[in-house]
Amino acid sequence: MAVWRAARGGRVRGEDYEAEFREYMASRWGDLVRFGYGLTGDRGHAEDLAQTALAKAYASWGRVRRADDLDAYIRRILINANHRRFRKQRVAEHEGQVPVEPSVADGTDVFDQREALVAALMELPPKQRAVVVLRYWDGLTETQAAAILGCSVGNVKSQASRALAKLRGSAQLRDGSVVR
To answer: What's the whole-model pTM score?
Structure first.
């Protein structure tokens, strides 16, 4: 990280430019995929979103790196890429019949709870989902989330309140025994 921090004040060209971006990308890849997973509920889509966001950031790295909060800027690119994903005409996927196998207790309750939580998140509207992921998944403050989403702190608070109310009433969370 020292390369991109040291270079933020001056011009970066050629190999320095690429080394700076490569170092930033390597240090943030896991966080971006985790954030994308919170938005999409799918690891493959999350990796695609992270890759798209980083590709867009690289294309205009000279401008992006001058942002006051570089991580917030990249998260905003990721959120926008996620919104564009739904605007495109998509071919419906049809899952085949899967034979039912007897269940065996194997101690994966934690994974079942996570799956129930992600399913409940997917039922939230995109803005509420983004607020919940930013605030409670990534642990950002209301002010930081508002800056990333380009809205007021009050909007973040109301979206979070509505989202949490919906999550409390979610059938997936009750059936998955996440809410007690």
So the answer is: 0.59
